[in-house]
Amino acid sequence: MEAVADRRANGLWVIVASFMVAMVLAIVPIPDSAPLEIAYLRPEWIVLVLLYWVMAIPSRVGIMIACLVGLFTDVLLGSLLGQHAIGYIAVAYIAASLYQRLRMFSIWQQSLVVFAAVGLNQLINVWIESIAGLTEWNIWYLLASVTSALLWPWVFLLLRYLRRRFDVS
Fold this sequence. Notes:
This protein is mainly alpha-helical. The chain contains six helices and no strands.
């Protein structure tokens, strides 16, 4: 009985640590010498980690975790409270609904789904910000979808290695 509890606790710290690393990567500053447009290329690290864990263990990481991570992200980035939570809930719902199919896809096919999911998240965020009068629509916002989809294979392989190494289930 204790061994099962130890394994669950062991897996929990891996999941939490992966989200914390993603949040740190989300706030790493871009050098002042870089053009402003380079900021649009920043991958959506938190969405990538969320997608992986929802696909890998949907019984532990789902819509509630997406909501909590979204609220933490809102506080971290100083955005409207609930803005990222809504986007992450939509992404988690889609991934949880399709996780059995997504697992059967090749990693490059999964990248196309990641492209669509991150694009949906970006559109929700821009929509909320435009309603609040904080920004206007710009096609550059969708570049994060492209970079996230291109990075998906490496994020997937790294998180799968960690899940197997630390027996997260």
